[in-house]
Specification:
- The protein starts with a strand and ends in a 17-residue tail after the last strand.
- By secondary structure, the chain is α/β, with parallel strands linked by helices.
- The strands form three sheets. The chain has a six-stranded parallel β-sheet, with helices on both faces. A two-stranded antiparallel ribbon has the order 1-8. A two-stranded parallel sheet has the order 9-10.
Length: 251
């Protein structure tokens, strides 16, 4: 079926099971907001007072639900305002997809009103950034964004969509959401080798971080340190995994 770019954005969000979006509207992203309003019974939009609040809210939503958090922002200052939230998600390995809209393709790189190089700005603080230049690529870019955000070590991904692409039409075929790509990082032999190193160490110490929490591995870590009588210390993101009164928790 023929859909315009704004319709494709919403249909892709529905494919991914998105039920909540945080954002603040502006001129460049209005076509997407108009389409989002038509699907307000399927996707709830939470209006924040500032785009930075939208990216932080998406980050918090992802942490608390285990889903990919989604935020919207418009061009220029709208897109730059979400940077802090994306940096936070990147540092703490939280899956977030940020969808920003920019000036039309023909106006890019010409210092147009509220134009910034969103892809370049976000590149150091995201797992990946997409700059859509053809409406035919929009759906695949959005699907890839969600897959990348939740695969391997999770993190934020940005998709920047020029305003004219949200109005252009192309053929759209719905697809089921692709599962996160995971792989077994270590072989049994490597695990045995690591166990031998611990067993033979004179003064072993476990240093763990927030990945233990996000992987729901707190009980496994607890069992490991108590079975092997291993003193441990932790980062702020993993505070509480071991009780502060636990004799093996050195802080």
């Amino acid at each position: 079926m023929q859909l315009n770019g704004a319709e494709i954005v919403i249909e892709c969000l529905k494919e991914q099971g998105v039920d909540t979006v945080f954002g603040y509207p502006g001129g460049a992203i209005l076509n997407v907001y108009d389409e989002l309003y038509k699907h307000r019974d399927e996707i709830r939009h939470i209006l924040t007072s500032h785009e930075q609040g939208a990216s932080h809210a998406a980050d918090g939503y992802a942490r608390s639900t285990g889903k990919v958090g989604v935020c919207f922002a418009t061009s220029g200052p709208g897109a730059t305002n979400i940077v802090t939230g994306l940096a936070t998600a990147n540092m703490d390995s939280v899956p977030v997809v940020a969808i920003t809209c920019n000036v039309g393709v023909s106006l890019l790189g010409k210092d147009s009103f509220q134009e910034v190089y969103t892809e370049g700005i976000s590149f150091p603080i995201t797992k990946h950034s997409f700059a859509v230049r053809k409406v035919e690529n929009l759906a695949d870019n959005l699907r890839d964004a969600f897959r990348i955000a939740k695969s391997g070590r999770p993190g934020p991904v940005l998709v920047d969509v020029p305003k004219d692409i949200t109005a252009q039409k192309c053929e759209f075929v719905s697809k089921a959401a692709e599962a996160a790509r995971t792989k077994n990082l270590y072989t049994q032999d490597q695990i045995k080798e690591a166990a031998a190193l611990v067993n033979n160490a004179r003064k072993p110490l476990v240093y763990y971080g927030g990945g233990v929490v996000s992987a729901d591995a707190s009980e496994i870590l607890y069992d490991l340190v108590h079975k092997a009588n291993l003193p441990s210390c932790h980062t702020i993101m993993s505070s509480g995994v071991l009780s502060y009164s636990d004799p093996l928790n050195i802080g």
